[in-house]
């Protein structure tokens, strides 16, 4: 198990919560189809793949809309590049708009129960033992 990209010091990945302090920043969802808080489509049968076995530390800007990759196929992790359209047509990115600037941990394993934020699920064997998709 390599430590490449492993956060250090106070920037370590959270045990729970999407920020180094453990809390989730306030964010409002972007409506795209009436799915409530999340815009991810749940009607398809596609399953996400593990894109990374650790979360991504990201600086978010208040008022800017982000599209978190929920399928794991994007080459621009943790954000969507449109790959779901061909690789996982039943899935869609989760769009959200933070209400404040914040440094957060966005999930890379795509198994979090608190998307788009890491909740520590990646530490389990289901993620750590999973294959990673090939990268170019
Ligand atoms: S990367 Fe931590 S829950 Fe997915």
TrEMBL record:
InterPro entries: CISD (IPR052950), FeS-contain_CDGSH-typ (IPR018967), MitoNEET_CISD (IPR042216). Pfam families: zf-CDGSH. This is Uncharacterized protein. The keyword Iron applies. It comes from Melopsittacus undulatus. It comes from the Eukaryota. Its cofactor is [2Fe-2S] cluster. Residues 1-48 are annotated as: Disordered. Residues 22-32 have a biased composition (Low complexity). GO terms for molecular function: 2 iron, 2 sulfur cluster binding; metal ion binding. GO terms for cellular component: mitochondrion. Gene3D superfamilies: CDGSH iron-sulfur domain, mitoNEET-type. Keywords: 2Fe-2S, Iron, Iron-sulfur, Metal-binding.
């Amino acid at each position: 198990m390599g430590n490449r990209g492993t956060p250090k010091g106070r920037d370590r990945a959270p045990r729970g919560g999407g920020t180094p302090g453990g809390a989730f920043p306030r964010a409002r969802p972007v409506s795209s189809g009436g799915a409530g808080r999340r815009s991810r489509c749940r009607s398809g049968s596609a399953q996400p793949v593990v894109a990374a076995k650790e979360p991504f530390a990201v600086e978010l800007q208040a008022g800017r809309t982000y599209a978190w990759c929920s399928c794991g196929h994007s080459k621009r992790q943790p954000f969507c590049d449109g790959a779901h359209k061909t690789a996982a047509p039943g899935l869609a990115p989760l769009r959200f708009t933070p209400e404040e600037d914040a440094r957060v941990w966005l999930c890379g394993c795509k198994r979090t129960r608190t998307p788009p934020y890491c909740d520590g699920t990646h530490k389990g064997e289901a993620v750590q033992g999973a294959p990673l998709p090939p990268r170019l």
